[in-house]
Amino acid sequence: MMLYREQKEQLADAILMLERAGIIDFNGHFSMRVDGDHMLINSGKSVRSALTADDIVTIDFDGNLVEGEAVPPMEFRIHAEIYRRRADVHSVAHTHPLWSTLFTMAGKPILPVIMQAAVLGEIRYFDKTASINSQGLGIELAHVLGDHRVAVLRSHGAVIASGSITDSFVFAVYLEETAERQYLASRLGEPHVLAADEVRAIHANLAKPHLLQKVWDYHHAKLKAER
User: Which residues contact 18 (CB under 8 A, 6 or more apart)?
Assistant: First the structure.
């Protein structure tokens, strides 16, 4: 009997949907905290475009396998150190998005230029280009993220931390949509950035659980149509 089957299936679907959206590639990973000090995460060898619940393993925060046979991704420290620092976080995604990463390569901030960006909060910047494959780097990244939801890594990708798989998925989508539209708008002129009071008002409206669920449902319906 597979433990946490429903959660593993949801994680697998989240990764498949992000892959279809071009936000996760062959190296992205997504996790969920379980039992306080363990996590579910896709294995390092898993094929992100053909993932199933069988590709999700259970590990502790030191990377030791608790359930499953394949080893975790080498960057499991991203997840482990955020979970250690943040009791409020129950899901972490590490993505390799195109548009968001371009901004980190150019040293340009991703700004709240669309309404969905208001849900993300401040986007933190990790000013290193490296695989986060040591505890020290994981701790540094967790420190940079702090109490925020999103961090971007120079020339590397993004990290999203939240209370649920659904929320982390949606924030990953919102981050990439914001970066793409900011870039495209900049080709026409200077993009208008939402003012702080606009961000607060929009956040209050768009951060509602049923609206985040709507984004998940939209992408999940497309995934189901493939099957």
Answer: 24, 28, 30, 93, 95, 169, 172, 173
User: Using CA atoms, how far apart are residues 111 and 96, in angstroms rounded to an integer?
Assistant: 19
Name the β-bridge partners of 30.
Answer: 93
- How far apart, in whole angstroms, are the C-alpha atoms of residue 210 and residue 192? 28
**Overall size of the chain counted in residues:** 227
**DSSP result, 126-149:** E---S---SHHHHHHHHHHHTT-S
Looking at residue 1, its pLDDT comes to 52
Question: pTM of whole model > 0.85?
Answer: yes
pLDDT in tens, 118-127: 999 999 999 9
Q: How far apart are the C-alpha atoms of 27 and 113, rounded to whole Å?
A: 29
Q: Domains in the chain, start-ordered, CATH in brackets? A: 5-226 (3.40.225.10)
Query: Edge-to-edge strands of the sheet including 38-42?
Result: 65-67, 56-60, 38-42, 29-34, 91-95, 157-162, 150-153, 123-126
Instruction: Look at residue 3 in the predicted model and tell me its pLDDT.
Output: 83
CA distance 131 to 181: 28
Helix (H, G, I), strand (E, B) or coil at 150: strand
Taking the C-alpha atoms of residue 19 and residue 158, their distance in angstroms, rounded to an integer, is 14
Residues 6+ apart with CB under 8 A from 2: 8, 53, 54
**Which phi and psi (to 5°) does residue 78 adopt?**
-55, -50
Q: Of 147, 151, 70, which Cα lies nearest the Cα of 110?
A: 151
